[in-house]
Amino acid sequence: MIRIYNTLTQQKEELRPIEPGKVRIYVCGMTVYDYCHLGHARVLVAFDVITRYLRHRGYEVNYVRNITDIDDKILRRADENGEPYTELTDRMIKAMHEDEARLGVLSPDDEPRATAFIDEIIAMIHKLISGGHAYAADNGDVYFAVDSFDDYGKLSKKKLEDLLAGARVDVQEAKRSPADFALWKAAKAGEVSWPSPWGDGRPGWHIECSVMSTACLGDTFDIHGGGPDLLFPHHENEIAQSECATGHTFVNTWMHAGAIRVNKEKMSKSLGNFFTIREIMEKYPAEVVRYFLVSSHYRSQVDYSEENLAEAGRTLTRLYHALRGIVPAKVADVPETEYDQRFAEAMDDDFNTAGAIAVLHAVANEINQHRRDGREEEAKRSAAVLVRLGGVLGLLQQDPEAFFQADTGSELSAEDIETLIQARADARKAKNFAEADRIRDDLAEKGIVLDDSREGTSWRRG
């Protein structure tokens, strides 16, 4: 039985899909005006693991993650760059896909873009106006009337009267109430726009996700996820407009990933304390970054630091060391073990990846013990279990040598290192041990660790 913490009810609940055996998931994706930062990676990896595990448990998953490709920030950045907004969004989408691929994030089943749903957005807005839940203002904007939805605040536990207290409305806005939010924004001079019954304009951010999610997954679906900063007002507004438009419960389970923190503050572009995914992967292998994110429970806050990433590299290295120099048995030939059961127990408890990773280390310890005892066949079977369970988390799928020798910007190439290792071997053969030690020390200073064994010398980037 899989139990998931539901932000809406603030408790863990058994997963009961609307359609038995099938799970429909929608996750708010990127607003593509800049490169993705580590906070985005947190959400991408968290829901990638959740989707992988549900499939591992036999569920048929329809995973939808949208792209916001029209937004104030996009238009502002495109104007700053002096380029069409479509060139900016296309470039950032390409970069996002590159970052995802390096992190081992599988592509969603559907990746709708807001600009492809303009007609559907207009249709939902029209339905909301007809139902008395929205109104066209004199300035060409269309607003959702928050007081028309009695359950407003049920996700965030905020009360409408508290939101109204002390709220201010910009003098240029034509809202009836400070809490009302834009469904359609009238176009400014020279701004990209689409025709509508209320004049040329473009959709507001919140309505985009309501339309894309229901268009792809139906009026009611199983799970809606996103980052912690989206709970209010974005997800709250999604609920209000969706349930008023369809007359049905919007989502059964709400899931929110924890924030990345730097010096006890949330990582974000607005605070200027963010690191892009690609900047971090210039210094650390992509799988180390993924391990760093997966090693904490998806709802917990993660503290970013160089030391924490380095520690993630060291612990992941221990797992790969257990697999080094061994050919695992075929995964399909190894039946379920107690480790599979312990792994499932951890993941069934609200996708407890920290507990699941503890199981991986237990398997690695068993492999090492088998090898010390000379039980190679048992070691191969245990290695197959480690690879199988690691794969559910998107880990340990590389050849160990490829992991150890991954180049993250070192001044030495693999060919350079091999040449120096051969020079060291020649020096040792000639009994010039001082030269051999000098080469080893020089490599160590450059982050290259040598491992001598009866089979020869292997190396890894430290």
From TrEMBL:
Localization terms from the record: Cytoplasm
GO molecular function terms attached to this record: cysteine-tRNA ligase activity
Main localization (coarse): cytoplasm
Pfam families: CysS_C (PF23493), DALR_2 (PF09190), tRNA-synt_1e (PF01406)
Keyword Zinc: yes
Alphabetical list of HAMAP family matching this protein: Cys_tRNA_synth (MF_00041)
Name of the featured protein: Cysteine--tRNA ligase
Species annotation: Marinobacter metalliresistant
Gene symbol of the encoding locus: cysS
